[in-house]
Amino acid sequence: MPAFQTADDVLRRARWTVQPDQGSRTLGRLLACILAFAFLYGGVMGSFRGLAGLPGWEQQVLYSAIKAPLLLTGSFLITLPTFFVLCTLLGLRDDFAAAVRALFTAQAGLAITLASLAPLTLLCYASTISHSQSLAFNGLMFAIASLAGQALLRSHYRPLIARNPRHRQMLLAWGVVYVFVAIQLAWLLRPFIGSRGLEVQFFRDDAWGNAYVVVAKLVWKVLFG
Q1: How far apart are CA 160 and CA 173, in angstroms?
Q2: C-alpha to C-alpha distance for 206 and 136, rounded to whole angstroms
Q3: What is the pTM of this model?
Q4: Cβ contact 49:60 at 8 Å
Q5: Residue 55: which region, alpha, beta or left (left: phi > 0; alpha: psi -120 to 50)?
Q6: What is the H or E stretch that residue 109 is in?
């Protein structure tokens, strides 16, 4: 199947995934790969309600399957203008296209790794009906997949860093901005799992909040009561 062939090529670091002469066809194949594998993991993530015996699980599966690709592609697109400006300021504009191809391939690697972790998520859901534990487990799966994506990214970035060491700074800057945006976007797109006692919704009624303010309040409450 084309999707599995593309996934295999991404994981094996096939040259076509980052070569400039493939143009839009390369980006199209990688985008299809990101959407397909993120959709798969999102669906599994939303199956918590089904395994916990809660109503509306079919709807939650569909919503989560749609929102996982939105999270990955949305985080990428939101951070791209910042990445472009920083590349230009650091004098790396000539390598911008090559850097974006490397980032896109890494996104595909992240989505593929997430899908490969789906059986573990199902096993977690079958082992506990705790929403908080399931939420934490999914966070761990995203962290593992992100590390896999970073490994791919560093591999494809090696020639760029060899050409100009300032690419190492760009890699760090991209990572910081991407994580910052992804956490906030995940907060806006919640729920991905679905809580007991709450109706199934695509967005929470209080979706337009700030994830970092909520985390700060939680830390303050833990420290000072």
Answers
A1: 15
A2: 21
A3: 0.88
A4: yes
A5: beta
A6: helix 96-116
Checking if the pLDDT of 223 tops 80, the result is no
Over its C-alpha atoms, the chain yields an Rg (Å, rounded) of: 19
Q: What is the pLDDT of residues 56-113, one digit of tens each?
A: 899 999 999 999 999 999 999 999 999 999 999 999 999 999 999 999 999 999 999 9
Q: Cα separations (Å) of 189 from 25, 28, 37, 211?
A: 30, 25, 18, 11
C-alpha separations of 69 from 1, 35, 79, 111, 196 in Å: 20, 5, 16, 8, 24
Residue that is written with structure tokens 């980032």 in the block: 103
Instruction: Determine the Cα–Cα distance for residues 193 and 188; give it in Å rounded to an integer.
Output: 14
Please count the other Cβ atoms lying within 10 Å of the Cβ belonging to residue 214. 12
The 3-state secondary structure of 146-164 reads HHHHHHHHHHHHHHHHHHC
Question: Quick one: which H or E segment has residue 40?
Answer: helix 23-45
Using the CB atoms, write b or e for 114-136: b if 16+ within 10 Å.
bbbbbeebeebbeeeeebeebbe
Cβ atoms of 90 and 72 within 8 Å: the answer is no
Cβ(52)–Cβ(199) under 8 Å?
no
Asked whether 155 and 168 are in contact (CB, 8 A), the reply is: no
Residue with tokens 């980006």: 27
